[in-house]
Amino acid sequence: MALTVQTSSTTTASKSINVQVNSTASTVIYTVPVGRKFKGHLWTDQATYFGIINGQTMRSGYGASYYYVPPLPIELTAGDVVKSSPTTSDSTQLQGLESDA
Questions:
Q1: What is the DSSP letter of 34?
Q2: What gap in Å lies between CA 34 and CA 76, rounded to an integer?
Q3: Are 36 and 78 in contact (CB under 8 A)?
Q4: pLDDT for 68-99, tens place per residue?
Q5: CA distance to 21, 38, 77, per residue, from 101 (Å)
Q6: Residue 35: left (phi > 0), alpha (psi -120 to 50), or beta?
Q7: What DSSP element (H or E) covers 56?
Q8: Phi/psi class of residue 78: alpha, beta or left (left: φ > 0; alpha: ψ in -120 to 50)?
Q9: Is 74 within 8 Å of 53 (Cβ atoms)?
Q10: Domain boundaries in the chain?
Q11: What pLDDT is recorded for position 84?
Q12: List of residues 6+ apart from 62 with CB closer than 8 A
């Protein structure tokens, strides 16, 4: 008698993530679900902080101005947490694609 192994693989469609918050300090705006990953950008309208990823404050680069802050490219894995900027005067935006890990 031969053994038969059946495997099933389910994939979940990729989905776009676009979150923007204004005047909310250190608020959770996105958590990568189990079995998923995220690739995208974090952006702010201020020249100091992008936001917080896994408890680490992401500061905008030297020379950033209120007129142009380039987006921060990020890649996250399951369980990673993104929070808004630590100051209430900032707007934080997260854009990208969530897909199977």
A1: T
A2: 11
A3: yes
A4: 778 999 999 999 999 999 988 888 999 999 99
A5: 27, 9, 7
A6: left
A7: strand 56-59
A8: beta
A9: yes
A10: 34-100
A11: 94
A12: none
What is residue 62's predicted lDDT score, i.e. its pLDDT?
62
Structure tokens at 35: 């079995």
Identify the pLDDT of residue 67: 63
Residue 1 pLDDT more than 60? no
Distance CA 25, CA 95 (A): 19
Three-class secondary structure of residue 17 per DSSP = strand
Give me 18's structure tokens: 């676009």
- Token pair recorded at residue 50: 């992008």
pTM: 0.84
